[in-house]
Amino acid sequence: MEIFIRPAGPADAEDIARVQRISWAATYAKQLSPESLARVETAWDARHWRRSLERVDDRVISLVLEGADEGIIGFGVAGPRRGGKDPILRAYDGEFYLLYLLPQFQRRGHGVRLMVAMARVLRARGTETALVWALASNRPAIGFYQHLSGSILMQARKPFFGESVNEIALGWRDLRILSSMTPTLRD
Ligand SMILES: CC(C)(COP(=O)(O)OP(=O)(O)OC[C@H]1O[C@@H](n2cnc3c(N)ncnc32)[C@H](O)[C@@H]1OP(=O)(O)O)[C@@H](O)C(=O)NCCC(=O)NCCS
């Protein structure tokens, strides 16, 4: 089984929406209300993804993990840090916006591969620091980012599809920590 990383394009919209929907449901079913989950599914459907992948913005990096037989099994999106005038956050130029893998492909090293690939592209574009926001209740994701040397920066209450949720920001003051990693895959 060979899974490759490549840039995403508008033709991947359906597959990315599918991966996000399945990964979302598996991860957040117990963390968010059914109403919020339904709102997320509608907001992040294939149409949303087509529009966002058609937009030409060289600062945003969208990558997919794809196998010849498996199709698209995961994706990641990163770019400039969004919002927030907080002095702690302002020390970070980049942000990992999204990272989703199908459940059956998790814990095999693909998540690390995508993070490393995104960090390399961010650095190639001159971004040396980055952060990520995760739901505070998503302990596995927080454990994953800490495993990759992300440091917890702060917790904040944020609006999220009709709910107010606790989110945690983790940051990398030097993306070389990520970009220089050599990910290994496990079966
Ligand atoms: C979070 C996610 C991207 C991580 O990717 P992954 O491919 O599962 O993780 P990897 O196999 O690359 O992880 C490498 C290491 O990170 C750590 N790690 C990964 N998942 C972890 C978890 N659930 N709990 C604790 N540590 C974890 C482990 O040390 C792991 O190595 P090990 O398996 O040898 O113990 C993936 O699990 C996923 O898509 N989850 C659902 C969606 C999600 O939560 N996205 C993040 C939103 S902020």
Relevant terms:
binds coenzyme A, single chain, Aminopeptidase, alpha+beta, globular, 187 residues, 7 strands, 7 helices
CATH superfamily: Gcn5-related N-acetyltransferase (GNAT)
Tally of contiguous helical segments: 7
CATH topology: Aminopeptidase
Largest beta-sheet details: 7 strands, mixed
Strand content: 25-35%
CATH class categorisation: Alpha Beta
Give me the Rg, rounded: 16 Å
Order of strands, main sheet, comes to 1-2-3-4-5-7-6
Average pLDDT rating:
94
Unreliable segments (pLDDT under 50, ≥5 consecutive)?
none
Helix percentage: 25-40%
CATH architecture: 3-Layer(aba) Sandwich
Structural class: alpha+beta
Q: What's the N-to-C terminus distance?
A: 9 Å
Bound molecules: coenzyme A
Write the H/E string, N to C.
EHHHEEHEHEHEEH
Shape: globular
Q: How many discrete structural domains?
A: 1
Number of extended strands = 7
Quick overview:
The chain is of the alpha+beta class. The protein has seven helices and seven strands; from the N terminus they run βαααββαβαβαββα. The protein has helices at residues 13-28, 34-43, 46-54, 87-90, 110-124, 139-147, 176-179; strands at 3-7, 61-67, 71-80, 94-101, 130-135, 151-160, 163-172.
